[in-house]
Amino acid sequence: MTPLDYEYLRKLLKERSGLDLSADKQYLVESRLVPLARRVGVTGIPELVQKIRGGGADVLTAEVVEAMTTNETFFFRDKIPFDHLRENLPALMQARANRRSLRIWSAASSTGQEPYSIAMLLKEAGQVLAGWRIEIVATDLSQGVLEKSKAGLFSQFEVQRGLPIQLLVKHFAQVGELWQLNADIRSMVQHRQLNLLQDFSHLGMFDVIFCRNVLIYFDQDTKAAIFERLVKQLEPDGMLMLGAAESVVGITDAFKPCPEKRGLYRPNLTRTGRPIGVPPPMPQALKAVASARY
């Protein structure tokens, strides 16, 4: 791969996916795209670039972007954001007692482990959520990983990564050498293809947004622009969950960190000026939800 080929791919990937590759990541591009080049029947990356430059190669371009975007994920990854959700669930439910609905967005959801972890967590809340409308929206740039997520089928290796054995037994059925999530869990998650660089206002408002381990690949300006759009989709008392290596500090004042709650952020109401309604008294039944464990 020539330096010119690499610069072309860097620009292409940033425009199409927001991925901001540094000048020393040529090895990463080669490791991801050489297998793709072989699969589509070209001799290497230079010929791959030539085909894309020639125009009319939208499918190939999409395959290049998909090959380069990282899809590493596992059930209850990092655990702490899920603890934050569980601990704050009673307050969220209290504030939404009149509408009896919750909307949660899993952005860059990959093969589904994150949104399905959220679904299982809410399912474990039991009867306190009976009669509530729960919407979990899972989005990703890659249609391929979304199709895998929809099927809810996972290998033995995948279910061993982060998934407590009691949840495996309770919410999965063995299908040959694979494990499939039960239909009631799968039905809690809606899948939509989405590029975070594009407008996502059509998704509507959310009570919780998980946007973890994806913004680390974007430059500062792109991160700031995404944060500005995320805050518009989040309820005034809603929660934004970021990855362990991510932060809003020094990038935007649209959100403020929650003290001693790593990865948890709230809309900065002093800037947005949006009011929070006064929730009704909390029912006794909700008080046990925050301390429940799976």
SSE layout and pairings?
Blueprint: H1 3-17, H2 26-39, H3 45-53, H4 58-68, H5 80-95, E1 101-106, H6 113-124, E2 133-140, H7 143-151, E3 153-154, H8 156-160, H9 165-171, E4 172-175, E5 178-181, H10 183-186, E6 189-193, E7 206-210, H11 220-232, E8 234-241, E9 255-257, E10 264-267, H12 269-272
Parallel strand pairs: 1-2, 1-7, 2-6, 7-8
Antiparallel strand pairs: 3-5, 4-5, 8-10, 9-10
Walk me through what this model shows.
40% of the residues lie in helices and 17% in strands. It contains 12 helices and 10 strands. It has 294 residues and is of the alpha/beta class. The chain folds into 2 domains: 3-68, Chemotaxis Receptor Methyltransferase Cher, domain 1; 80-272, Rossmann fold (3-Layer(aba) Sandwich), CATH 3.40.50. It is globular, with a radius of gyration of 21 Å. Strands 6-2-1-7-8-10-9 form a 7-stranded mixed sheet, sandwiched between helices. The chain has a 3-stranded antiparallel sheet with strand order 3-5-4. The longest helix is centred in the N-terminal third of the chain and has 16 residues, at 80-95. It has helices at residues 3-17, 26-39, 45-53, 58-68, 80-95, 113-124, 143-151, 156-160, 165-171, 183-186, 220-232, 269-272, and strands at 101-106, 133-140, 153-154, 172-175, 178-181, 189-193, 206-210, 234-241, 255-257, 264-267.
